[in-house]
Amino acid sequence: MQSNLIRSTLLAALMSMAAIAHASGGHAGGHDHDDAAIGEPGDAARITRTVRVDMADTMRFTPAQITVQRGETIRFEVINRGQVRHEMTLGTPADLVAHAEQMRKHPEMEHADANAVTVDPGQRGEIVWHFTRAGSVEFACLQPGHFEAGMRGAVQVRGNKS
């Protein structure tokens, strides 16, 4: 009887978190990432190329530096070669720092943002992203402690696509 009450309470809590995540545009606790500064979700039918990104328990991305052309739509094929959950989140430096802080406070947070993918050990995921402005777009793993351990990288977006 008590286990049914616990299950019902947990289910209600999960449903509430899902509703909050949907309303906040991504995950419980929500954050406002600046898509205009980093680009926009890409259309899978317009992918220019695929870039494979490996994640490891050494708290590193390979490659950690990626170059694209403004106007390209990139499929990031993200592979977790480690034994713990990792993620790749594109963002501005300020957004990544703020989001990492939220993840430390709420480590159970699940993402549903187009600029992020969470990947369990031995699995793969993808982000399809359209780079609309030249400059630098950062990426990081925001699982608690990973960002602080140096699990980050950058995408250099060069001038106009040829």
Automatic annotation (TrEMBL):
Signal peptide segment: 1-23
CDD domains: Cupredoxin_like_2 (cd04211)
Main location: periplasm
Record's keyword terms, sorted: Copper, Metal-binding, Periplasm, Signal
InterPro entries: BlueCu_1, Cu-binding_ET, Cupredoxin
Domain Blue (type 1) copper: 51-157
Name used for this protein in its record: Blue (type 1) copper domain-containing protein
Organism: Ralstonia psammae
